[in-house]
Write a structure and sequence with these properties.
Elements lengths: L3 H6 L11 E3 L3 H14 L3 E6 L4 H16 L4 E6 L15 E6 L2 E7 L3 H11 L1
Parallel strand pairs: 1-3, 2-3
Antiparallel strand pairs: 2-4, 4-5
Helix pairs in contact: 3-4
């Protein structure tokens, strides 16, 4: 069960929030998101980050803004510290995984708004 302190550590989606952008609230929630990605077969991108990661904090506002530019993609933010079991394979933050037809088709490490935009365009 979450308490208010846990909510404050997660990046604030704020005014950049869009219907296609969600933040995983824990391992069980991220498992549900994975299931939805697999069964809906809709294109999606997952941004794996951490609250203590400076580079993650730099790219997160762009990730939110880009969710508005690519409404056909589902955007997911997963904090590796809030989802430790489902993100134990993540070795670098930020890491972006791109999904199409229920399968992971691409991966991007690190920040770079233009690189991220190009990958989103490619997979949208």
């Amino acid at each position: 069960m979450e308490n208010e302190g846990d909510k404050e550590e997660r990046p604030n989606l704020g005014s950049h929030s869009h219907g296609n952008l969600v933040a995983a609230s824990g391992d069980e929630n991220l498992k549900e998101i994975f299931h939805h990605i697999r069964t809906s077969r809709a294109p999606a991108v997952i941004n794996y980050g951490a609250s203590w990661c400076h580079v993650c904090s730099q790219i997160f506002p762009a990730f939110c803004q880009l969710s508005n530019k690519f409404p056909k993609l589902s955007f997911v933010y997963a904090d590796i510290d809030e989802c430790p079991d489902t993100t134990k394979h993540i070795r670098y933050t930020p890491t972006f995984h791109f999904y199409r037809d229920g399968e992971r088709v691409d991966e991007m490490f690190g920040a770079g708004e233009e690189r991220l935009h190009d990958r989103l365009w490619l997979h949208s």
